Each structure stands twice: as C-alpha cells, then as structure tokens.
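hey m, so remember when u said the tokens were messed up on ur end? i reran from scratch. heres the input so u can diff it against urs
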Amino acid sequence: MIPPLTSLMAFEAIARRKSFNLAAAELHLTPSAISHQVARLEKLLGLRLFERSTKGVELTPAGQSYLKRVAGALGAINAATDDLRHGVENSLHIHSSPSFASLWLMPRIGRFAKLHPDISLGLSASPDFSDFEIGQVDLDIRCGVPAWPDLEIEPVLAERIIPMASPDFLALHRIEGPADLVQSPLIQSRGSLLQWPEWFAKYAPELRPERIALRFDRAMMSIEAAVQGLGVVFESDAFAAEHLQSGRLQPVFRTGLVLDLTQHFAVCPARNKSRPEVISFLQWLRDEAAQASQTTR
C-alpha cells in the first residue's frame, strides 16, 4: 500500500517546517488543501500524525517514526529525479565546511577527478550541516564534535593545532617561551574547536592571554593574517600545510607544544555509504589523509 505522493509530500513539508501555512506556501497549495492531504493520509494509516495546539504543530510518536522512513524515500526520489533530469550518471555531491573545502579539499580534488573520470562530482561549502533528507548531498564533511545520531561517521584526518607565525614576524619578536607569547598579538579562528586559552591551560597554566588581537570566522583568514605578519595564529597544521612547506609560516616553538585534535568527519546516512561513488571517495579521502599526515609530521 503506497499512499498518494501529494499526501506524503504534504506530511514531510509540515513536519519539517512545523507549520501548515509555511508548508502550504512551499508546495504552492492553500492551507485548507494541505490540511486535506494530511487528513487523507491519517485516515489511510488509521493514526494521528500531528498534534495541533496554540504553540504550533508537533509530530506524534507515530508521526516521528513514519517521518524517518518517508523523508529518506522522498529524498532518494528527489535525488534520482534531479540526476536524470540533468542527464547525470555516476554523480556524487560533497558538502564541506568552508575552510576544509578551500584549504584542504580543493588543492587535492584534481587527483580524485583524474582517478575517477567517470564520476560527475559536485562540491558545495557552507558552515551549516547538510540536511540529507532533502536528498541533494551524498556526503558531508563536518567540523565539530561527532554527535550526529542515525548517521555513519568516519574521522577524516588527525590534526595538530600549533602556534604559527611568519619568519619576518618571528625575526622582530623574540618568542622563546609562553611568557613571550602572552605579550604578542594573537590571532584566532572563531570556528576552531580549540582556542588560545586551551593551549595556555596545557603548557602555561599560570599565564592567561590578556586579549586576542585578531579574530576571524574562517581559518583561511586567520592563516592569511599570520602570513602577512600580523601576529601568531593558533591553527591546524593540515590547513596551513602549504604555507609551512613554502616557509611563509613557521611553528613558533621547535620543541612541539602542540595540541592534537580530530575535528573533521565524513558523515552520511547508511543508505549513502553503500553507493559505489561514496565508497570510492571515502577510500580516496583516507589515502590523501594518510599522505598528508606523513607530510606535515
């Protein structure tokens, strides 16, 4: 028994938007028409899917259970239709956080394209996590603490978060220990899981930076500020690898004083992980991460 597609779309839109009016506008229907579609579906199932109150619309337990199955099916239909409409076969769409995309993924993605010329690859980047139920993304590379239930999660690479600065800056500022660092202009990325206070807490708990001179919402900008000699940045060696290899940046301390961190994860629903294109991309990602780890150590 397959319910009418229009009723399923109405149910999914209301559940996602938590509003009959917003769902009706999205689907170009009147509120009464979308209510009729849901009533039709509830009658067919013999269950209430929504609880309506002055506070809004909430799914019933039955509605929550049904949504988990229906949303994935609608997403798969949407993705298949979009691929076919554009004449795309063997397609793969990757979403990523902006800094990972620009600083780590894009310098390497040409190797994947050459290795898999039969895969039509799409890339997008934003700080927001992908909504897999929409069906537009196959794999999401996320930055954060891996607490995403009902998704397959795989660490991408181990990073070292280290203080770095340009050679010209280090020539002008004698930084021999944490006490000298406190007096230096510090640069920080707002989105980083580790901040300067965590570094001082580990290596110089008696010290505390009085202020952060420059803050940016992207690692790429923080690293570029350090390249320009504006201060000491506390960032990932994986993101700054090109600058470290070229000598535009140097670790401030030759004896280490780094914090190890795994903060990037490849995430997708279980149904996506079995796709050949996703399998190929994840294997390529593992190989690139292993090679990058050897290069930066």
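this time it looks ok to me. The chain has a mean pLDDT of 88. if urs says something different then somethings off w ur setup not the seq
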